[in-house]
Amino acid sequence: MSPQETPSPRRKGWLGAFAIHAVLLLGVAFALYPVLWVASLAFSGSATPEPRVIPWPSEPTLRHLQEVVGATADDGGETVWIFGRQLLNSLVVATATALVGVLIAIPTAYALARFNFLGKRTGMGVLLATQMFPAVASAIPLYLILEASGLLNTRTGLVLCYASTAVPFAIFQLRAAFEAIPVDLEEAAMVDGATRLGAFVRVVLPIARPAIAVTSLFAFMSAYNEFILAATLLDDSKMFTLPVMLQRFVGEYDARWEAFAAGALVVSLPVMGLFYVAQRHLVEGLASGGVKG
Amino acid sequence: MVDIRLRAVTKRFGDTVVLDGVDAAFPDRSFVVLVGKSGCGKSTLLRCIAGLEEVSEGAIEFGGRDVSRLAPRDRDVAMVFQSYALYPHMTVRRNLAFGLELRKERREVIDARVAEVAKLLEIDALLDRHPRALSGGQRQRVAMGRAIVRRPAVFMFDEPLSNLDPALRNQVRVDIRRLHDDLGATSIYVTHDQVEAMTLADVLVVLDRGVVQQIAPPIDVYRRPANRFVAGFVGSPAMNFLEGRIAQNSERAAVELGDGARIEIPPGAGFERLQRGAQVIVGIRPHDVVRGPEGSLVLPVELVETLGSHVHVHGRIGDMPFVAAFEGHQGPRKGERLQLTVGELHLFDAELGVSLG
Amino acid sequence: MSNLARWVLRLAPLLWALWLPSRAHAGAASERIRLWHAWRGEEEAVLTELLTSWDGTPVEVLAVPYDALSSKLGSAIPFGEGPDVFVDSHERLGEYQRRELVAPVGDAFEPGVFVAEAEAAVTIDGQTLAVPLSLKSLALYVNDDLVQRVPADLEGIAALQGALPAGVVALAYEANNAYAHAALLHACGGRMLAPDDGFGLVGPEAEASLEVVLSLLASGAVPSEADGALVTNLFRSGKAAFAMSGPWLAADLPTSLRYHVETLPVLARTGTRLQPLLTVESAMLSPNGADKPEVRRFARWLASATAARRRAERARGVTARNDVPSDDPIVRAFLEQAGLAVPMSTSTAMRATWEPANKALRKILRGDAPVAEALAEAEHRFALVMRAPPAPRSPTLLLLALGGFALMGAVLLGQRARTAGFRDQVRRSIPAWLWLVHAVVAVGALVVLPLVVGAATSLFAGPPGDVHYVGSANFVDILTARGGPLFASGSFWLTLVITVVWTVVNVALHVGLGLVFGLLLARPVLRMRAMYRVLLIIPWAVPNYVTALAWKGMFHRQFGAVTGATMALGDWLGIAIEPISWFSRFSTAFTANVATNAWLGFPFMMVVTVAALGSVPKDVLEAAEVDGASRRQRFLYVTLPMIGPSLIPAIMLGAIWTFNMFNVVFLVSGGDPDGTTDILVSEAYRWAFTRDAQYGYAAAYAVLIFVLLSGITRGLDRIGARAKAKAAV
After folding, report:
1. Does C253 lie in the same domain as C366?
2. Contact between A182 and B50 using a beta-carbon 8 Å cutoff
3. pLDDT of C192-246, one tens digit each?
């Protein structure tokens, strides 16, 4: 597919390149448009029900952004910056989910990649099955379990729920990543004087870092974006995560689209930032990761 | 610095027996080569000695100490892997230092030893590179350095040369033997390449299907192979085998081949006890035949290979393929019928394959 | 080791942050009064302000999204969690009473101070179950700049249409919303709920009311497909002469707009007034809260005259008290309207009428079905939801079967345990088990256990709090479409077909787009590769509910970008293109869903493709080139078969995700039109949360989804294995 392999004259190569960039730009437009549309809505001052095609705010304003970001609430007499609290909640919950989820998944994935043991096949089957059962039916039992263990209405409980749900996918991802690492390396480390655990920590983990990073990113995202469980399990607006806050803007009777858009923009930024940082590893992480057989 | 004893070492994976009662004793500072076809269990035996596999039965002793249940790190061994197994996330320096760090050596000691080994192997210029930035040969040297730097009691080599190109392979082979002599440890080396096996070994262990066929110095294995398998495996080109029957020819014993040709057995070769009429396999090394008009074997020439110093002549005797090797570069032409006189020959039991010598 | 220590130190603040506030909260909860509400904007602000003057036990307030309030109450209160006091509409009292989420309010209710309608609304079987706070109903907003003289009847208002400037509608209201339509139904002599708790929007009165709406729509006097936000926007921007809306609209109107509010007009053809539904927003007490005198005092204070006055002043709250006169003309108008309104029934059947009624309305107003037929269908749907739960069955058979299985398992295990190999296997498995015991506990307790319990729910039925074992009745009901035609709208089989089509179309688009862009990005020579990659990955990084809502907005008939684009295209071509009403036809609604989901999912496949292409050895491609394969042939016969095996697991995963892609379907089309774009998961969700909490039925759907997906993945797995075997040759 290098340029010199086509014996055709240069003009054709130029045309081909043009076509390729045209297709890519079309894709970029498709990918970007909704985001820009939301952004333009967020900065729009006028709320006339006009169809807008060009994603540019009419009567630009920061009003909605200020309203959403500057939201405060009363907490026993003192005013708290509720948006800040909820942003922190979201970040803490998502980070903790990624950490806990991946920490749970790593040793398990390693055992599945390297050992043969009783129950391996059954375990893998159960893990796969958890991905297919819709959450609708298990939300209420989950509520009961958290209630029984006193974790209801705590962020710890939320983190445990998210982490456990993130674990099966993380295990698939990491197992494949570990399988892609030659066993020789661990054996070399063990001959060099490491224990099995030592070889794992000092050799396998550093090599699997891209896959671990990508897996963590997925776990982070799943927690950061979730709102149904969060709205069900939390009873304190100071503990709400951002998506629950956002949900309130588009109620049944008066949808505040501009405020929603402003909130959506703010909520999306951290994940987009993380994606930007991680995108280089994404290909690598997936190449060695679970979605490859 | 230790002698190694294997006592009835047996290894099973499920129902498959990979090693079947291997007994051996390797003296201190010897260079032991485990050789055999792929799947013969030689790598498994090496891994058992290193501790990477647990033996199912039997015992492995280092210097009289039973190490069979010890983890690799407690056996004081070092290993060079076929894939080199360099840690991709560490520089060459850290690759070399890793084992010493794990053993909590003092920093100065580590630095000194790494520098020393790097110099010895001429990789001091590469110390701050990562393995992916090295050539195959360089990686191989780093892998060796990583083993040497720890000064272990036993060196293990698992086909360390198979990923190198042939020219480099000969060079490194010599280096390995020289290092072994300098370092004074016991070495165990696995290969399927018989040139490596012959040139490197003090003791050669030939394995087939998990069973030891012969343990002896290489020249003994070459000269007096214990059975037909060893005979066919060692030596290049491989030994020719012809089917025959013991016959009495006046005062001397001889072997009568299927097509009526007779090969006289030289006296004093230890074949006197053979019964007349016994079915045997005659083994003749390609180099052990001489052209001459009085030769008892006739080889119709089908193909001639010219190697420069030698020519190999391929043909058939009876329905068995036969190769003869002659010095010089002037070979016979295709279609010629060569008359050959046999020098040294080997006799094996037709059924059991054991040497009748 | 030092590395590990550093990590632990870094993590410590995070763990602290997680642990500390939850502790503080647990300690404080008992000494506070907990109040839940779904108020927003001004109403919420008034509450906050009011609470500063409350002198009793501190109050902890939680604002809950309106849609989530009732399900949150239902999951919290039975376990002694949740609020002491909550504010909700009175019509939910019947259900709350049945589920024991509320208790009689006792001395929180001040006798004699509330208007009669309000007092009646919160009283069930002689028990006062809530303290009325404010009255909500629709009334008529009049734009005084556009209207000089208010016509006497609805027909007169509609007749104004011709006289109004272009782009202005006579009357903005949510014509396809049953709540708003009720006002017309009442004027025609009908009721939303028949006296015997039967479906009300059926029969000659209902048909007459719909004929009125149809004629209003036909004359263009009423905007089609208006939702609450559009009504607000039209009236706020002076593009509607009249609006039929509630007090919440006033909060959104600028002071510059000249308008007033009066009672709804008369319907000339029957001579009766339009009577809106009346909702009494009330403070309710959970059983826990009702026990505490302080909580009752708080509820009484919430409904006090002072508080009512403040609500009236600040948020135009129409008080339910008769002793708080207001001088605000808008509040007075709403109060007057409340007297002419029909209080909503507290019967549990009320809640089940909305979904079928709304569906029927939309269907009729779109002209998709004759009035009588659509209404009859709605009545049938209502009956399906309201049907008596299946008869209890004896669980003996199940228990016997379970016991049998357990016994069989134990015997088999015992037999295996006796073999020597087994003990050896166990011994060798122990080190591996140590690596994953924590994961087994975590996943077992928080994923598998809820899942098993959830699945078991499918064998039960009955209202929450009164469930009984029914065996396979739920499954039989679903699979036989409850005796109706198997492929009727909303039936399992039709939904399944739609779900499968949905999955296939989406996955095909994901793979197609992913392959195209993945192949382009993987070209050895490409300028600005990094930029393209970053930009093309963006849809993956956006939270998918944001995506869904954004796309719903873009497909909006009035102000969506897609509409704008088609209209701009029409202008450019010089032809008039009618704005497409995306969610009124299956084909367009489905397209909108698919567009959203395709946008959402293609970057994943693209990245997977790039990753897979990295593993195709170059020499094979070169060999094909030497063999004379064209670029197209190289792709078809070499590249594709070689990346296939790595794509199949990703496709499988994508198929599972799409099959269960609740967010997109629920948020974009919401099942419109008429539930035809619903997929199995959203259908299950509706049974659990919007149709009388039939959890058992929803769970049966979930189990069926699970069974289907297991089958599909097994099939795909086999294809994958075959492809892999082929590629390995």
Report:
1. yes
2. no
3. 998 888 898 888 999 999 999 999 988 888 987 777 777 888 898 888 999 999 8
Q: Which domain holds residue B336?
A: 240-349
C311: nearest Cα among C49, C635, C492: C49
**Structural domains of chain B, count:** 2
ipTM: 0.85
Mean pLDDT (whole number) for B275-288: 87
Whether residues C554 and C638 fall in one domain: yes
> Chains touching chain A at 3 or more Cβ pairs under 8 angstroms?
B, C
Q: Which residues of B touch A185 (CB under 8 A)?
A: 85, 87-88
Q: Which of A181, A192, A195, A284 best probes binding to B when mutated, by most B CB atoms within 10 angstroms? A: A192
* Residue C129 reports pLDDT greater than 50: yes
Q: What is the band of B1 on the pLDDT scale with cuts at 50, 70, 90?
A: low
Q: Which CATH number fits domain A72-287: 1.10.3720.10, 1.10.357.10, 1.10.287.1080, 3.55.40.10?
A: 1.10.3720.10
Domain-ending residue, one of B225, B250, B283? B225
Query: Which neighbouring-strand residues pair with A219?
Result: none
Distance in angstroms (rounded) separating the CA atoms of residues C641 and C198: 60
Assess whether B105 and B215 both reside in one domain.
Answer: yes
Residues B220 and B245 in one domain: no
Domain assignment of residue C70, given as a range: 32-131+281-322
**CATH code, domain carrying C258:** 3.40.190.10
> What's the pLDDT at A243?
85
Tell whether the model's pLDDT for residue A194 goes beyond 50. Answer: yes
Q: What is the pLDDT of residue A253?
A: 54
Question: What is the pLDDT averaged over residues C5-11?
Answer: 53
* pLDDT reading at C393 higher than 60: yes
**In terms of domains, do C115 and C21 share one?**
no
C23 & C36 share domain: no
pLDDT tier at C70, thresholds 50, 70, 90 = confident
- Helix (H/G/I), strand (E/B), else coil: A1: coil
Does the distance separating the beta carbons of C517 and A292 come in below 8 Å? no
Would residue B268 be called left, alpha or beta, if left means φ above 0 and alpha means ψ between -120 and 50 degrees? left
Judged by CB atoms within 8 Å, which residues 694-723 of C form the interface with A?
695, 698-699, 701-703, 705-706, 709-710, 713, 720
d(Cα A32, Cα A21) in Å, to the nearest integer?
A: 16
**Minimal CA separation from A208 to chain B, in Å:** 10
Q: Please, is B291 exposed, middle or buried when counting C-beta atoms within 10 Å of its C-beta (0-12, 13-18, 19+)?
A: middle
Tell me, yes or no, whether C580 and C674 share the same domain: yes
pLDDT at C29 (0 to 100): 46
| Residue of chain B with shortest Cα separation from A188 | B85
**Cα dihedral sign, A219-A225-A226-A230:** positive
Confidence check: pLDDT of C25 > 60: no
Quote the CA–CA distance of C143 and C418 in Å, as a whole number.
Answer: 88
